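Look over what follows to help learners.
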Amino acid sequence: MEHTNKTAEQLVAEIAELRRRLSGLEQCEIERRETQEMLRSSEIRLKHILSSMVDYVFVFDKDARFIFCQAPSPDLYVTPEKFIGERHADVMPAHLHEPFEKAFLNNQRGESASFEYVLDINNQARWFAAQLSPIFINGAFMGSVAVVRDVTAQKKAEETAKKTAAQLRALFQATPSVIIELAPGGEIVELNHEAELLYGQRREEILGKNYFETFLPDELRETIAEDFLGALEGKPTRGFVNPVRCADGRMRVFRWDVNPVRGDDGAHIGIVAIGQDVTMRYEIEEQLAENKMVLEGVFHALDDAVLVLEAATMKILDCNPAASRIFGYAKEQVIDQTMGFLHVDQESHQEFKKQLYTAIDQKGALRRFAFPMKRRDGTVFLAEHDMLPLLDKEGVRTGWVRVVRDISGQQKG
């Protein structure tokens, strides 16, 4: 009886244990289903995330075989059907083997790695940047995840920028103007070849020197520095002229345009000055000024009347004192008048113009032509005329110079 009771107790205990174990299995099944559901949800979320990425995602196993691919574009080097399950080295071009193997080896050591490469896809060169990250589970290396971005547009922009920069450097060095970049304190930051020639020093010898102290006369240093550095306050300089001491000690005259240099944040970090050697022009201008003074002296000293006429209207633009003495009119009475009132009459004026244009057509000018004229008091006198056209640089007639010489006394003699 005691044995029977004991067996019954054991049966009850075993049933209870079975029920507990069954409950545990049911709980495990519930947890398994929940885990599966979580995994499915995570997988869906992951696919959504991957599908929204602009990057390519490739997963490799520990033997560097492709096991997963997410591509934002169907333009791949080979289709997934051809590379999934295959080793990287078996499907990708030879020039990628070494950079990939180095990056994969770094992943095996627990380190991320990146590299860039180019592929020929649809007969077009495409640049990519790859970032490889390791996958470890319970401390064991299981493979790598490669996130790859198409950087073709960026590379083309970089190439364009490099080409543009090279062109600008060539222009910077080839331009016949002197170009100097200065720091806010006046130190020379950069200069071109023309500046080296002007100052007789190599670029390496000039960089870092204070421009104003090195190349300007003491008496002009402060004024020019103030004008140049004023560009730092947003006041560009245009046409500033100053003498510059050259390498051989000679002084040359330069005309400068100065602009501020801006940093990435828009702040002024220096100035760039572009100078043109205008020494010859100034020398020519000085010579022309001297010549003008001489010509004006001759113009006023001549005994013959000299009148400058406008081409279109034949109005008198200027005359010398001799014109007033010969015709008896003050200068202000002559200016803006036509020559008609100085002729004997209208018929005489028309005859003169006929003779003038015939001479111009045949000889290019009217020379020593005797023709009567009339003074203010009505006196008619015989005059000798020279009339020459004034031409611009294109050969277009812009005016006339008429010289009238009183020869009435010669006639009487």
